[in-house]
Design brief:
Layout lengths: L2 E4 L3 E6 L12 E3 L14 E6 L2 H9 L6 E6 L1 E5 L4 E8 L25 E3 L3 E3 L7 E5 L2 E7 L5 E6 L6 E4 L1 H8 L8 E5 L12 E5 L10 E5 L5 E2 L12 E6 L4 E3 L3 E10 L23 E7 L5 E3 L9 E3 L3 E6 L7 E11 L2 E14 L3
Parallel strand pairs: 17-23, 19-26
Antiparallel strand pairs: 1-16, 2-4, 3-15, 4-14, 5-13, 5-16, 6-15, 7-12, 7-14, 8-9, 10-11, 18-20, 20-24, 21-22, 21-25, 23-24, 25-26
């Protein structure tokens, strides 16, 4: 398929309130602004997240060079946010340590990045004076450093989904081309909201250390569909069809790359004279307008949604088909496949319990 997911190698939250505290092993990434004893009207936090260079190069090498990269974080808690606001991300200017701290550790853990320091044990402050982008907050120097000429922004309204889905293609491309070093992303509330004393809010996301199925990811998408049909291939004429998905052995390992074939047959074939049963004839789905999605069975969450480019079905003389990298799916979970197709001017979704399970490679 043209969808490949990478999971973080590092992530943490940095806090103005606790400017030497490390939270590298917290199960939550905290993009919030709340009053505290230390800063009654000006407490804020930011998120740092990094993806491994080898994983990144491996993903992009599978594409033709034309791809979209999306940074995705899944919301855990939302409280008190404004009706309209934005968050933004930049590539981080300096390297940093994730650490093994947690927010509630007593005594406080300082073996990784914090608001004031980028490395363990309160060593090497963020180079806020020499970096392209930096923040001084209420006299509390720090908060990370970043490149200002690369950014991505996502706007939210009161009724919109609160999951983060940022188009970071330009940043990822700069890393891949070695224009800038890959030190990860910094995510923060954009504009004046981050420092506006009129707002206190909680905006939490699951981290790489979550025990849920919602860890952050970097999703690389591209068009991998191919059409190699001859005049012998016949496209299904209408929506009155039966679909079967072949090569589904029902249990896969998370390192497999699977080619699923989608066989389509008419429910009510036209009457013709033939010495062969009509049910032996497979037809292909409409080329260029048939897509797949993958759904987590327990939560009904679309872990791979229909996409006009990245989940487009391929076709040859045998059938339509698509390929799936299983490494982007969580082990010990059940999933199902849906097929969507535009047929004769109508849009139809075929969902006939096409289930499979992912096992972890030993």
């Amino acid at each position: 398929m043209g969808v490949y997911k990478i999971f973080p190698s590092q992530d943490t939250t940095i806090y103005t309130d606790y400017n030497t505290l490390n939270a590298g092993l917290d199960s939550i990434l905290d993009l919030s602004k709340n009053a505290s004893i230390l800063y009654p009207s000006s407490s804020t936090s930011r998120v740092l997240i990094k993806f491994d260079n080898t994983d990144l190069a491996n993903a992009i090498s599978k594409t033709s060079g034309l791809y979209t990269a999306s940074l995705k974080l899944y919301n855990a808690t939302v409280e008190g946010i404004p009706t309209e606001f934005s968050i933004q991300t930049h590539p981080i200017y300096e390297s940093w340590d994730m650490g093994t701290g947690r927010f509630n550790n007593v005594p406080e853990t300082d073996d990784g990045a914090s608001w004031e320091y980028k490395n363990a044990n309160q060593t090497n402050t963020w180079n806020v004076g020499g970096a392209p982008g930096s923040s001084y907050y209420s006299g509390n120097v720090g908060g990370g450093t970043w490149y200002t000429n690369y950014s991505a922004t996502q706007s939210f309204s009161y009724f919109s989904t609160k999951d983060i889905n940022l188009n970071v293609t330009s940043i990822v491309s700069a890393w891949y081309n070695s224009s800038i070093p890959n030190n990860g992303f910094i995510i923060k509330t954009s504009g004046s909201l981050e420092f506006d004393n009129n707002y206190n809010y909680t905006f939490n996301f699951f981290s790489r250390d979550t025990n849920t199925i919602y860890p952050p990811c970097l999703e690389i998408k591209w068009n991998d569909s191919t059409v190699t049909t001859s005049s012998a291939a016949v496209t299904i004429p209408n929506e009155e069809i039966n679909i079967a998905i072949a090569n589904n052995k029902n249990i896969f390992y998370d390192n497999e790359y699977v080619k699923f074939r989608v066989y389509a047959r008419e429910k009510y074939p036209a009457r013709v004279y033939s010495t062969t049963a009509l049910t032996t004839y497979n037809k292909i789905m409409p080329v260029g307008s048939t897509y797949y999605s993958v759904i987590d069975l327990a939560t009904n969450l679309k872990v791979i949604d229909f996409d006009d480019i990245a989940t487009k079905l391929s076709a040859d003389d045998t059938s339509s088909y698509f390929r799936l990298y299983m490494n982007g799916l969580e082990p010990e979970r059940y999933y199902k496949i849906q097929i969507k197709s535009i047929i004769d001017g109508g849009t139809y979704i075929f969902d006939d319990d096409y289930y499979f399970k992912i096992n972890q490679t030993v």
